[in-house]
Write a structure and sequence with these properties.
alpha+beta; three-stranded antiparallel β-sheet; 40% helix; globular
Length: 95
């Protein structure tokens, strides 16, 4: 079974969220249907990044890393690339 670490972005509230799951598509649906208490106020969410792991322990370790200072810096880089690819010309710092 694969486990995923994912990063979501709320363009309406300019927020990111990091999580892990064994069913990425189902988890995204839960986030966007208001079934996740911590993300409900910031809907809608867009998946901007994911990684696959063979064990939940590995996924949880990576999730925790993304929540560290170095990981938050990496999230900013990922978000910058996502926004540039979307073609809106905005950067994280200008939002």
């Amino acid at each position: 079974m694969n486990y995923f670490v994912y990063i979501l972005y709320s363009p309406k509230f300019i927020k990111t969220y990091v999580g892990q799951s064994d069913n990425l598509s189902e988890r995204l649906i839960k986030h966007n249907s208001g079934k996740v208490k911590s993300t409900k106020p910031y809907m809608p969410w867009t998946l901007i990044y994911s990684e696959s792991f063979t064990s939940r322990a590995e996924a949880m370790k990576r999730e925790n890393w993304f929540k560290s200072r170095a990981g938050r810096k990496k999230i900013t880089e990922i978000l910058e690339k996502f926004l540039q690819a979307e073609g809106n010309g905005l950067s994280v710092s200008s939002r």
